[in-house]
Design brief:
The protein is mainly α. The chain has a domain of about 130 residues: Serine Threonine Protein Phosphatase 5, Tetratricopeptide repeat. The longest helix is centred in the last third of the chain and has 22 residues.
């Protein structure tokens, strides 16, 4: 409990620093993440039994942890989200949202560890698998996609759970489930590029070229602005990579 309160104090100090830094720019991504964190923290503290409040707070912790300046801040924020999700799952173990965001906030915690990361990675895998069993189509197949990225980026056997074949299976399944969601195809295409699979990359880039103009119309507005900034940057890198590799494909 003392350790949790220490994490809360560190996180609140970080939030106060962010508020000062971003006072003149309240609409920056950091300011938005900080505002969402504060709002959902109060909501969860006022009603620990509210499942929606719990997973939304866990999600806010995951998002804010992306902006942490150091491992101590990231750990403090992540632990709050993890604690909220675990409390909620003790009462409602069938919540796909809570399992998903528990896995993601565990991922933020794993980023701060070295020797202890392996145990956390295994727990992430279990939580993503549970979310898939509950609803594999949740949030544009996010549990499948996230599990695929975990398998792709983790070290392989015997060090950890990393596996190219498992990563391919999960990422391709995410595209099957939600083919019109840019994040799914971008992650799959980036994986093909990383693995040096030039023909598969070319096919996925062609699919993205057809998808993105349509998705830009259906996924529009301020809520999607940050996603599109990220997607556009990654798309440009993929497009250039595909152009270079196409010249070398016999």
């Amino acid at each position: 409990m003392i350790q949790l309160w220490r994490s809360v104090i560190v996180s609140l100090a970080f939030v106060l620093i962010l508020r000062v830094i971003n006072a003149a720019e309240p609409q920056t991504p950091i300011a938005k993440a900080e505002q969402t964190y504060r709002t959902n923290r109060v909501r969860f503290q006022n009603d620990h039994a509210n499942v929606q409040a719990a997973w939304q707070f866990a999600r806010a912790c995951f998002d804010l942890a992306e902006f942490a300046a150091n491992d101590e801040q990231r750990e403090g924020i992540a632990k709050q989200g993890i604690d909220a999700a675990r409390r909620s799952l003790a009462h409602r173990p069938e919540s796909v949202e809570t399992h998903s965001y528990l896995a993601l906030t565990l991922g933020q915690l794993a980023r701060t560890k070295r020797l202890g990361a392996l145990k956390i990675v295994h727990e992430m895998e279990r939580e993503f698998k549970t979310a898939i069993q509950l609803d594999e189509q949740f949030d544009h197949a996010a549990p499948r996609r996230s599990l695929g990225l975990l398998y792709r980026d983790a070290p392989g056997w015997p060090t950890s759970i990393g596996s190219r074949s498992k990563a391919r299976r999960e990422l391709e399944r995410a595209v099957e489930l939600s083919p019109n969601y840019p994040e799914n195809r971008l992650c799959l295409a980036e994986s093909y590029a990383e693995w040096g699979e030039k023909r598969a990359l070319q096919a996925e880039v062609q699919a993205l070229a057809e998808l993105l103009p349509k998705a830009r119309k259906s996924l529009s507005g301020e809520d999607w602005a940050e996603d599109w900034r990220d997607w556009d940057t990654r798309w440009e890198k993929l497009r250039q990579s595909a152009e270079k590799s196409s010249k070398r494909v016999p």
